[in-house]
Specification:
By secondary structure, the chain is of the alpha/beta class. Helices cover about 25% and strands about 35% of the residues. The protein has 3 domains: about 120 residues, 3-Layer(aba) Sandwich (Rossmann fold), CATH 3.40.50.720; about 160 residues, Dihydrodipicolinate Reductase, domain 2 (2-Layer Sandwich), CATH 3.30.360; about 120 residues, no CATH class. Bound molecules: nicotinamide-adenine-dinucleotide.
């Protein structure tokens, strides 16, 4: 099979080396917008093009490998398939599910093979782990896949990775497809149950946590990180229901940077050839993975919080009056508000409770009174905020009771055991700190 490669950047050499190792494949043409990258290939007598259209029009290739920035994948893949050329496209197949759908429809209409390159599914440690799993997947309690790296060590120098319009996002769309595909290889089709992103820099997230469930009901978590100081962690831990733990370090034995990619990219080309042999029967998972990524962004971006991101400054309230009593029939009511704005200088009452109120209207009877405190700066007190006293975390804000409003709010603090001012050694002038919940 005669192949062309479109995009001669950081990842292309792994394909080029894999082609050279495979006697059934030959490189017939290369393409890159940057003419300087073509020169060494032209010197070797190979056809070099600065436009993918010219490469396709030259009719030199049976298949192309697309190693371009993410936003270009779908158009170039469609252009190739329209000319009857088989496509092996780097992940993600597209940056939107609608574009991925367009690509797969073009494949169906033209009969040209579409194959998305997910290299981790060919990793020998992943394959070994898959072989060790029980055939009955319901015996698996959970799967956790860590995919951590420093993105700067993986780029080819161009900053398209950090441009949301070209990359489509950050670590979720970049590493997500390979990590999700690896878990999918172990568990089958996945559905997203939750997603969080964080460390967002100019719209690009540098960390994420994706929660999924397989069709068999097995939960899986994918942790993505672009911000390791240096190096990589790419491992999978499978916990079985009987307590057995099975692991795979995908980089074990591949000490040199990216050296695991040699056998993985040979695997991709074997997969591409197998897909061509299957022809119209080949079902490419590329669009499913783009849809999962899009789903993850939709869920994560709706969240009010971001991982690893402090969203408010810690506020201090100074105790101005102490209270020492506790009641078991106080009859307070949880207000509907999850948060309340508090101005500097306002005084509110602090109470502990063991009743665990959680829904609007819940009755609160068991109450230990701490006293009244003056907020030293304006803040937003929120359910879940941690309450600290003298370096000790005494509980978290459960919510508010408004029976004395507008004079003051009763700020209810969930605690393991009721306490009053004397139980926690509170003094006039003591500082009570309200901190956002740590994650
Ligand atoms: N770098 C990695 O570790 C890695 C790993 C797995 C997958 N990938 C995927 O491979 C793809 C390429 O990534 P990369 O890191 O090699 O990027 P890169 O920036 O190093 O290379 C992209 C190349 O495409 C060329 N190019 C840009 N626009 C072009 C156009 N219109 N026509 C022709 N050439 C054009 C650029 O000149 C550059 O040489 C991405 O989809 C990425 O997600 C990269």
């Amino acid at each position: 099979m005669k192949l062309g490669i479109i995009g001669l950047g950081a990842i292309a050499p792994y394909f080029l080396d894999a082609i050279e190792r495979d006697p059934g494949l030959s490189l017939a043409a290369v393409c890159d917008l940057d003419g300087k990258k073509l020169a060494p290939w032209r010197e070797r007598g190979l056809a070099g093009f600065t436009s993918h259209r010219k490469l396709l029009d030259a009719g030199l290739v049976d298949g192309v490998i697309i190693t371009l920035p993410n936003d270009l994948h779908s158009d170039v893949a469609c252009a190739a398939m329209e000319r009857g050329v088989a496509v092996c496209c780097e992940k993600p197949l597209a940056i939107t599910a609608a574009d991925a759908q367009r690509v797969i429809e073009t494949s169906h209409r033209t009969g040209s093979v579409l194959f998305t390159a997910f290299h981790r599914r060919y990793n020998r440690h992943l394959l070994d782990l898959a072989a060790r799993l029980p055939a009955d997947r319901t015996r698996i309690a959970q799967v956790v896949h860590r995919y951590h790296e420093n993105i700067e060590e993986h780029t080819g120098g161009d900053l398209w990775y950090l441009d949301v319009s070209r990359c489509g996002g950050g670590c979720v769309i970049d590493n997500g497809p390979n990590a999700l595909d690896a878990v999918r290889h172990l568990l089958g089709d996945l559905r997203l149950t939750d997603a969080a992103i964080g460390d967002v820099r100019a719209g690009t997230e540098f960390c994420a946590e994706l929660d999924l469930v397989s069709a068999d009901g097995v939960p899986a978590r994918v942790e993505l990180d672009w911000a390791l100081p240096t190096g990589e962690i790419k491992d999978i831990v499978v916990e079985l229901r009987d307590g057995t733990v099975l692991t795979a370090d995908l980089l074990d034995g591949h000490d040199a940077f990216k050296s695991s990619l040699a056998h993985e990219y040979s695997g991709i080309l074997d997969g591409f050839k197998a897909a061509i042999a299957e022809g119209r029967d080949h079902r490419d998972p590329g669009p499913d993975l783009v849809a999962l990524v899009e789903d993850a962004y939709r869920v994560a971006r709706r969240k009010e919080t971001r991982l690893r991101t402090s969203a408010k400054h810690e506020s201090v309230a100074k105790v101005v009056k102490l209270l020492f009593h506790a009641l078991d029939d106080r009859g307070m009511t949880l207000s509907p508000w999850a948060s309340r704005c508090v101005r500097a200088g306002e005084v509110h009452e602090l109470l502990t409770t063991t009743d665990r109120p959680s829904s609007e209207g819940d009755r609160i009877d068991h109450v230990g009174f701490l006293g009244f405190a003056e907020f030293q700066s304006a803040t937003v007190v929120e359910r879940g905020d941690e309450v600290w006293l003298g370096g000790r975390r005494i509980g978290t804000v459960a919510g508010f009771d408004e029976c004395h409003f507008p004079n003051h709010y009763n700020i209810l603090i969930d605690v393991p055991a009721l306490c009053t001012a004397s139980d926690v050694n509170l003094r006039i002038g003591s500082e009570v700190n309200f901190k956002e919940a740590s994650r």
